[in-house]
Amino acid sequence: MEPGVSGAGLVGRYARVLMVVLVLLTSALPSQAQGARHKYSKSYIKLCSEAEHYCGLRDPKKANEIAGKAVKLDPAGAQAYYIRGITRMDLRDPQGAYQDLSRAISLYPQCKWAYCQRGVVNFECKRPEQAVEDMKQSLLIDPSDDSVIGIARRGLSRAGKDIKVDWYKIIDTHPLKKAMCLEEQRQYREALVAYSKFVEAHPDNVYGWSFRGRAQRFLKSYDSAISDLDRALLINPTDDLLFIDRATCYEGLGKFDQAIADYDQAVYLAPERVRTRFSRAILCKKAGRYRKAIEDYDFALSRAWRSAEGYECRGDCYAALGEYRKALDDYLLALKDTSNPTPLYKRLAEVYRKLGKPERAVYYEKKLRRGAK
Question: Which of 96, 74, 72 is nearest to 84 (CA)?
């Protein structure tokens, strides 16, 4: 990296993209193409989550230290190399960043963002031709995210190189692009045919299987969708969003136990993802697992995910368990933040009657009748 150019600017500039995908960039051994699965310890995943946390806090030194521990714990894990690679960019160690990102790619060849960030390193090290090839590879793996194009164009501009690349041609001619366009137009059966052609030609592309599974889910062909997501998970068994997609399919089949098990795995892989905990809470409530639902609502509500829906649903769980005082507290919190109070009036009336306060129950019953008119 040339003097005066800090990787901090790069990581800061692309932090939104990086943080969105970071937890997804998890490892898979080359043997997984034959269906073998690598097992990751809870300690490894915890270290990677902590490293990601410090990336978000803009503390690359601490993130680098923790990612290094994860690398030592499991040298076959691509995620730790990826995290350490982007922190080395911020710590002005482009050679170390290049080595770590290359290692992540060797362990998980479909790690599109590792290609993208290695491209950034190549731009900063005045290797624009290599950078362009990395950016192209990122798009070839997954043409659904054109933010890579913006990063590549900025890199070329900074490098002062006039390398002609028709970036959108790479996307538009990609065999997945046609299928995605059909899916966007809600032509799911036609999209399914296009995705099928792609996975036949590229059986090791995780995106092909996951996107086809999504199309199957839209068609409510849940068993077929699950089969596709199974294939995707053989390629990358530590992508928490794949488990969430499969959980949605199991839920569609009414198989709540399997759905909750997949949510459990997603939480194990990305324990700080609040949306996952909230979604699992909704499913556990539907399945009558009220204690587990309450634990997830507690987690979500304690992390600024404070919403009328969250308090109302947690209140429902407490009411189902006969803990009416706690249910009342949650319903009152929900009432402060809801745009549609009418359903809460009924709940409040019922809880007040259970608590032996008929006058308060009557008050909300009257409000309910007025609201229903």
Answer: 96
